[in-house]
Amino acid sequence: MTKDCNCDIITGSRIIVMKNKKEMRIMQNHYIDAMVKKMPALRATTKMTQAVLAEKIGVGRQSIVSIETGKRPMTWSLYLAVCCIFEQYEDSKKLLEIYELFDAEFVKAI
Fold it and tell me: CA–CA separation, 79 vs 40, rounded Å?
């Protein structure tokens, strides 16, 4: 994607116009920050421990602990992996939608 890319992305009822990579990074950070805040609730909905989530996405349990406590930032690739896991469970999939934690159109655009 070039620096001066201009993409219209529809997320729910709003349209986001991405003019450059900086704006896309801002949106990525928005989704990541929201996921970090809601990850314990998503895990609770699926009765998934930090250890189980860590195993499913291929990181150590301490990585999940550090992310949830704000001691370590969540990367975009880890965010996507977490979304893929929670998309597999009906209850957590509903929460992803309710909390607007994942937008497939945005992910496709980048």
Answer: 14
**pTM to 2 decimal places:** 0.80
**Alpha-carbon gap, residue 1 to 74, rounded angstroms:** 23
- E strand segments, 19-57: none
Q: Among residues 103, 96, 87, which one has the least CA distance to residue 41?
A: 96
CATH 1.10.260.40 corresponds to the domain 31-109: yes
**Helix, strand or coil for residue 110?**
coil
Phi then psi for 8, rounded to 5 degrees?
-95, 125
All structural domains of the chain with their residue ranges:
31-109
* 53: pLDDT strictly greater than 90: yes
